[in-house]
Amino acid sequence: MMSAKRNVAVVFVERAKNKNRKETIMGDKLLQIKDLYVNAGEKEILKGMNLSINKGEIHVIMGPNGSGKTTTANAILNNPAYTKKKGNILFEEKEITNLKTDEIARKGIFMSFQLPEEIPGVSVTNFLKYAKNKATGKPVKVFEFREELKTYMNELNMNSKNMERSLNVGFSGGEKKKNEILQMLVLNPKLAILDETDSGLDVDAIKTVSKGIEMFKNENNAVLIITHNTKILHSLKVDYVHVLVNGQIVKTGSQELAKEIEENGYKKYTTNRSQE
Ligand SMILES: Nc1ncnc2c1ncn2[C@@H]1O[C@H](COP(=O)(O)OP(=O)(O)OP(=O)(O)O)[C@@H](O)[C@H]1O
Ligand SMILES: [Mg+2]
Fold first, then answer.
1. Which CATH number belongs to the domain containing residue 203 in this structure?
2. Among 126, 133, 114, 113, which Cα is nearest to 167's?
3. Range of the domain at 21
């Protein structure tokens, strides 16, 4: 039996190895969004969105408020509040455009929420146990599971006394966001979509979240981070930064692009797009 602590150590060692192997392992297609148009009611939100994420990559989407970032995440999970008008979404090169949300989740796509839900009467432990059982289709071994949770909570500087509290009820904003990272580690999806998981966090908590992402990340999975906060990118190495404006990706660059936006804002992309 491999202890949870050892599991985490293995993750770190694998990550270190993968850094050197990156060039050869990149290229496996994980998510492809092709010419996607999405409405919420009558309102057109995504207008020809294209995005391709390979295994082993961390992508960031930045963009002004209301540009369609959260809608993109919801469209990937096929949230029924949104209507796809055109285009498609492939996961591991298979169509998922019109699958039900739970089927998409079972394929290994996880989404954390900009505003995490409160669930009275369901403890953090029980929620995670239930979610893991649903995701893996296997019974969860209670003792090992608790040890795994404790190890992750320790790494994320979370108070283990909170494990028996109702999920997110009365948790501070920062604690809720850490709960989302904990869920990601426990569920171990192939693609983790983090919608503003770093907003409202203090400096130390931002570092903790990026540590959680690094613990999760390996050559077979990928992360899509939606953020306004370039601070998380100070402690996390990412592969691509995309700028989403008015329902389209208008610019893709490296980590440097986030720095440029931090300094100059989005004006260049919203008022002078013809020159881009
Ligand atoms: N269910 C809905 N019904 C009507 N309008 C919606 C719906 N969902 C989103 N919208 C609108 O679509 C636009 C894009 O919303 P979205 O949440 O994707 O923005 P965002 O880029 O995530 O912004 P923020 O940075 O503020 O989180 C907004 O103008 C929003 O009001
Ligand atoms: Mg949003």
1. 3.40.50.300
2. 126
3. 2-118+175-270
